[in-house]
Amino acid sequence: MSQSHTAAGDKAPWFQIDLLKTYKILQIRFLGKTQIFVDRLHDVNIIAGDTPNTLNSTCAYYVGPPSMGEWVEITCSPQTEGRFVKLDKMYSEDRYHLELCELEITVMI
């Protein structure tokens, strides 16, 4: 993935990727905007599981925001497995978009 930006006014922005089969999820790294609005990347729930919905298990919760140009590195708990990985921005007063410039998922094969 190179860049993603959710719609303006979306009160529950999210980004989901299908890994096409189930893997043990070891680490998730992502990078928000690198020059402006980096402060919008906060309160993100990272979910992994075998179904494309929110009934999967939580890998981690990222409070944020990162520093400008900082990669966010999340190590999932050892039992985290899934075909789908979802970054779900939790409700916040600012209601900003979920903006990602890069996303990397490290799995055990």
TrEMBL record:
InterPro entries: BG_Antigen-Binding_Lectin, Galactose-bd-like_sf
Domain of life: Eukaryota
Pfam families: F5_F8_type_C_2
Coiled-coil region(s): none
Name of the featured protein: Fucolectin tachylectin-4 pentraxin-1 domain-containing protein
Organism, scientific name: Pinctada imbricata (Atlantic pearl-oyster)
Lineage: Eukaryota, Metazoa, Spiralia, Lophotrochozoa, Mollusca
